[in-house]
């Protein structure tokens, strides 16, 4: 199958969670949605062997004209993120306005009231990654799906709606909350609180880093939940954030996971949202202000990053890897060994007189080279993806067969088995 609906460079390509629908974005300012199911022989005439089947998009999303500047040209789309099962998507622009737009897929429109912008003159957004809050996993449920299809993903090639995650058309879309991590052209990154499908809720900035002296931030990745054993009865949970620059520097941070609101914050309904937001912003600021480790293997720019699990080492500890795509065409996997260095306790005072105690853990990181991903030449590698079992998330299965996929300027997609 092939298709051509964009009029300029394709900047991102993502599967919706059902794996039956694809989202693409482009520098031509548009988003396109395509069916990913192959055509059956009964539904179409098979083409000759030297031709491909062209699949039209089932939905095109275009930005609304600005109310303040209706004649202003829209911004090219540089990156996208899919929320939950795909009823809502986010797009970012690498132009100077740093716009982050929210789209209602089921209606096929941009939610104009929820446009956010990066702060402090950070310029364009190069990459984004969305991570859902852990509340869903603790509740043990799945996000309900709108009756228009698999999370509002649109129609299939024959004009029918994919049945994948449907619930008889009765389920209502539930709110999806999480963090959006954005790498910016000025060398900084910004973290936003995202809430969907509330159209009145703009992305709320939680944290903006200082600018890196090593060039624009061009890559970002977030790990699943990690846990360090501090004693026989105490674990510290956190996630890792990795950013890469055009100058080849990779920086790793620990993302604090604050205590659950049920045990740490007063249940008073009229103040709890404000307290939670304030606590969240302070927690992000404390954990992201100082990196765990910073390293560079060469001056080649970092194009993409992805966390992966690694086989257990000789001492029985499970490894954590970071796949690195670079402009010199020499992708590799870094091995990160985590260990606790110190343990301190501190408390913070928030509005409405609420006290929250935070256990602060200093984490040590040792970086080494786990593997070279050979086979390519000197063509830049632009993207990496990891497929397979992961030990990183709670409740997930360990297992062999983790795959790393790469794609670059030579037009070749390569698969590596760890």
Please describe what this structure looks like.
There is one protein chain. It is built from 3 helices and 25 strands. It has 418 residues and is mainly beta. It has a domain at 216-418. Strands 5, 6, 7, 8 and 9 form a 5-stranded antiparallel beta sheet that branches. Strands 14, 15, 16, 17 and 18 form a 5-stranded antiparallel beta sheet that branches. A 4-stranded antiparallel beta sheet has the order 1-2-3-4, with no helix packed on it. The model is unreliable at 67-71, 136-172, 261-271, 345-359 and 389-399 (pLDDT under 50). WD repeats lie at residues 3-34. Keywords: WD repeat. InterPro entries: WD40/YVTN_repeat-like_dom_sf (IPR015943), WD40_repeat_dom_sf (IPR036322), WD40_rpt (IPR001680).
List keywords for this structure.
5-stranded antiparallel beta sheet; WD repeat; 418 residues; 25 strands
Shape: globular
Give me the Rg, rounded: 22 Å
Strand-residue fraction? 35-45%
Structural class: mainly beta
Give the distance, in angstroms, between the N- and C-terminal Cα atoms: 29 Å
How would you spell out the order of helices and strands?
EEEEEEEEEEHEEEEEEEHHEEEEEEEE
Biggest pleated sheet: 5 strands, antiparallel
Helix content: under 10%
Low-confidence stretches: 67-71, 136-172, 261-271, 345-359, 389-399
Give a count of the beta strands, DSSP E runs of length 2 or more. Answer: 25
The average pLDDT value, as a whole number, equals 72
Q: Please tally the helical runs, counting DSSP H or I stretches of 4 or more residues.
A: 3
């Amino acid at each position: 199958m092939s298709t051509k609906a964009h009029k300029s460079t394709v900047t991102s390509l993502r599967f919706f969670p059902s794996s039956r629908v694809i989202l693409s974005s482009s520098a031509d300012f548009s988003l396109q949605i395509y069916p990913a199911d192959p055509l059956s022989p009964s539904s179409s005439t098979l083409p000759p062997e030297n031709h491909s089947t062209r699949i039209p998009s089932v939905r095109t999303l275009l930005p609304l004209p600005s109310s303040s500047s209706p004649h202003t040209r829209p911004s090219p789309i540089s990156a996208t993120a899919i929320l939950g099962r795909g009823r809502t998507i986010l797009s970012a622009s690498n132009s100077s306005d740093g716009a982050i737009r929210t789209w209602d897929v089921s209606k096929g429109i941009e939610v104009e009231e929820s446009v956010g912008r990066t702060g402090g003159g950070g310029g364009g957004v190069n990459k984004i990654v969305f991570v859902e809050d852990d509340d869903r996993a603790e509740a043990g449920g799945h996000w309900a799906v709108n009756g228009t299809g698999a999370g509002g993903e649109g129609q299939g090639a024959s004009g029918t709606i994919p049945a994948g995650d449907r619930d008889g058309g009765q389920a209502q879309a539930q709110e999806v909350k999480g963090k959006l991590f954005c790498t910016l052209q000025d060398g900084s990154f910004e973290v936003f609180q995202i809430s969907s499908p509330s159209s009145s809720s703009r992305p709320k900035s939680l944290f903006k880093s200082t600018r890196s002296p090593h060039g624009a931030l061009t890559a970002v990745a977030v790990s699943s939940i990690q846990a360090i054993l501090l004693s026989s009865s105490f674990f510290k949970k956190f996630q890792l954030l990795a950013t890469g620059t055009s100058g080849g520097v990779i920086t790793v941070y620990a993302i604090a996971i604050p205590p659950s609101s049920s045990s740490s914050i007063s249940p008073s309904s009229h103040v709890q949202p404000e307290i939670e937001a304030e606590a969240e912003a302070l927690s992000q600021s404390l954990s992201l202000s100082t990196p765990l480790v910073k390293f560079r293997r060469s001056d080649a720019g970092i194009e993409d990053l992805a966390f992966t699990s690694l086989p257990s080492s000789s001492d029985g500890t499970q490894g954590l890897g970071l796949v690195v795509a670079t402009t010199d065409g020499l992708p590799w996997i870094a091995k990160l060994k985590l260990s606790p260095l110190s343990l301190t306790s501190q408390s913070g005072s928030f509005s409405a007189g609420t006290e929250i105690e935070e256990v602060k853990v200093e984490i040590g990181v040792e970086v080494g080279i786990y593997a070279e991903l050979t086979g390519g030449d000197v063509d830049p590698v632009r993207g990496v993806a990891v497929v397979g079992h992961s030990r990183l998330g709670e409740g997930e299965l360990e297992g062999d067969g983790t795959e790393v996929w790469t794609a670059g300027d030579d037009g070749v997609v390569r698969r590596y088995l760890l």
